[in-house]
Design brief:
This protein has 222 residues and is of the alpha+beta class. Helices cover 53% and strands 12% of the residues.
């Protein structure tokens, strides 16, 4: 029996609603306003240092790299989600991911022109939870073990066999079989992202190889 993960989802949603979204939204608006007014250098000043450093190809400046992307208007802000020092700002024409540094919110990546971003959105949502996400995972797994033990013992009693304790159940093949079944989709998702990161490239992404690097290249920072 698989347990629905409603409670963990609600807990993560609560974490995302705790912080004030206004500063992150304003940073996103300033970034796109600078792009629309053709002030790419000003837009670069609103990028995280790592993104601004990795965005240009050799021989380019950050401003030139932004100009070459032809990102277009961002539009108005429609939704803002903040998780601690991470934020996602949805606009009518773009979606920005920001991080809060000592000097304020800065843009780390965006969905426009970034084919890897949708694949890494799930990883972003998991990463921003930090220790809270880890605690939710452990609590969910514990709840699964308790419910699984009850269902397993119901079957055993129906077969006129003695029930097992919780400790016996979590060390049994039955428990690990059910756990691994639940993890299949997650493991497949991680494997898919590993394969996608080999062939898809994204300017300014810390997860991506450089745009011009060959597929066979390894141990190369993006």
């Amino acid at each position: 029996m698989r347990l629905p993960f409603v409670v963990p989802a609600l807990l993560l949603a609560a974490v995302g609603c705790a912080a004030d979204p206004t500063p992150a939204a304003r940073a996103a608006e300033r970034f796109h306003a600078a792009l629309e007014s053709r002030h790419e250098d000003a837009a670069c000043a609103l990028l995280s240092r790592k993104t601004a450093r990795k965005l240009p190809d050799p021989g380019q400046t950050c401003g030139q790299a932004l100009s070459d992307l032809h990102m277009g208007p961002g539009g108005r802000v429609t939704e803002v989600n903040v998780w601690g020092n991470e934020a996602q700002v949805r606009l009518t024409g773009d979606t920005l991911f920001l991080h809060h540094f000592d000097d304020g919110w800065r843009v780390r990546k965006w969905l426009k022109e970034n084919p890897l971003s949708p694949a890494f959105l799930v990883m972003f949502l998991l990463a921003v939870g930090g220790q809270a996400a880890g605690a939710v995972f452990v609590l969910s797994w514990l709840a699964q073990s308790v419910a699984g033990q009850a269902a397993y013992n119901a079957v055993r009693l129906g077969d006129l066999r003695d029930p097992v304790s919780w400790g016996q159940y979590v060390t049994s093949a039955e428990f690990w079989n059910r756990s691994l079944q639940n993890w299949q989709s997650e493991l497949l998702a991680v494997l898919s992202m590993v394969v996608l990161s080999i062939y898809l490239r994204q300017r300014g992404s810390p997860e991506s190889k450089p745009v011009g690097a060959p597929h066979a290249a390894t141990n190369v920072e993006g």
